[in-house]
Write a structure and sequence with these properties.
Pfam families: ABC_tran (PF00005). The protein is an alpha/beta fold and about 375 residues long. The chain is about 35% helix and about 20% strand. Bound molecules: adenosine-5'-diphosphate and magnesium ion (MG). The site of magnesium ion (MG) has 4 residues, from helix 1.
Length: about 375
């Protein structure tokens, strides 16, 4: 199973510009997590902090139990080997063919001989569907292929944690779904911890086990996918539906006057953008047929069962429905189980704010 990533109250600024503050979360090992947030909210900065390329001014980051904000450079070097990182543009060397690009980390960081390197490179290229393209230069292939080559390179050192920055950038919606499928398939095969950052709504709705959101220098929430996808937070609803109406503005957050003006526009019949309101949860994508089952699914079910009582009611109902339907799959029963009726509306924890066993809701009122 992949390694755990945990941040404790981290704050990052550049000079006088604060990017985000007091971010506390635990990324469950072996599961696929996603961080969303409008452009410029510091998602890439967050990833860079996790691999120790940037250092937060405050707080701690524990990777597989080691605090990388206080460890030695030698320890940090070792910790970095746990990561595979897929940067936004694939970050391939333009003058090297795909084989040499994917082989690069093996030649840099290991003493493996060329026949071992060849075996590993070909295995990873096969995993991402690029067998046969090994002699192509990055400039000769499509953006989607470049991303898959970047992913193959991120996999060669057998990472326990895979960080992915904006996998959909430059890709059409179909290619974005293909690469998302690949993440789930790879998760099924190697059980690594995934953290993807993206502002892609489809990806958020269908791919991850857990979702977090950065907005206005804060982590709005982080927890099981059902929490964010059923959230009534205006900023979350606006984001998930791609609308102009809501707290997120053109460049930064809006003021009250602008929000009122826009609301009046919509009431007068102006289209707020986005598509029709999508409510609730669509099913999560699965690993492709022929893949081993994702071990993350069972682990997550057990984990979520434990914290369920701390979650908001709508999320509890969605989780229970999911548990019921997967129990049906297991038993191969055809009867429909009765819908979960909740706990009479009493749910503790969520409204208290604060960090509560895996769900972070520190800034409820946006
Ligand atoms: N190395 C840096 N030095 C100074 N400012 C930076 C640096 N990296 C990022 N920033 C600033 O941090 C903010 C968040 O950037 P980023 O993490 O790239 O946002 P996102 O990935 O969410 O779109 C931006 O305002 C950006 O200009
Ligand atoms: Mg970014």
């Amino acid at each position: 199973m992949g390694a755990e990533v945990r941040t404790e109250n981290i704050t990052k600024s550049f000079g006088r510009q604060n990017i985000w503050q007091n971010v506390t979360l635990t990324i469950p090992p072996g599961e696929v997590s996603l961080m969303v947030g409008p452009s410029g909210t510091g998602k890439s900065v967050f990833l860079k902090c996790l691999i120790g390329l940037l250092m937060p001014e405050q707080g701690h980051i524990y990777i597989d139990g080691t605090d990388i904000t206080t460890c030695s450079n030698k320890e940090l070097y070792e910790i970095r080997k746990l990561f595979g990182v897929l940067f936004q543009d694939g970050a391939l060397f333009g003058s090297m063919d795909l084989f040499d690009n994917v082989a690069f980390p093996l030649r840099e960081h290991t003493k493996k001989n060329e026949s071992e390197i060849k075996r590993i490179v070909m295995e990873k290229l096969e995993l991402v569907g690029l067998l046969g393209a090994e002699n192509k230069l990055p400039g000769e292939i499509s953006g989607g292929m470049r991303k898959r080559a970047g992913l193959a390179r991120a996999l060669v050192l057998d990472p326990q944690i895979i960080l992915v920055d904006e996998p959909d950038s430059g890709l059409d919606p179909v290619r974005t779904t293909y690469i998302s499928q690949l993440f789930l398939d790879i998760n099924a095969q190697i059980d690594a911890t995934f953290l993807i950052v993206s502002h892609n709504i489809n990806l958020a709705r269908t791919v991850p086990d857990n979702i977090g959101m950065l907005f206005r220098r804060n982590l709005v929430m982080f927890g099981p996918r059902e929490v964010l996808l059923t959230s009534d937070e205006p900023v979350v609803k606006q984001f998930l539906n791609g609308r102009m109406i809501g707290p997120i503005g053109m460049s930064e957050e809006k003021d009250e006057a602008q929000m009122a003006q826009e609301q009046a526009m919509v009431e007068a019949g102006h289209h707020a953008g986005g598509v029709e309101e999508v409510e609730g949860i669509v099913p999560q994508m699965k690993a492709a047929p022929g893949m081993p089952p994702r071990q993350a699914i069972k682990r997550r079910q057990d984990r979520v069962r434990e914290i369920m009582h701390t979650l908001p009611h709508a999320a509890q109902v969605a989780i229970q429905n999911d548990l019921d339907s997967s129990a049906e799959d297991d038993d191969d029963r055809t009867e429909v189980l009765p819908a979960y009726e909740g706990s009479g509306g009493s749910h503790r924890g969520y409204d208290d704010g604060g960090y509560d066993e895996g769900v972070t809701t520190p800034h409820k009122h946006l």
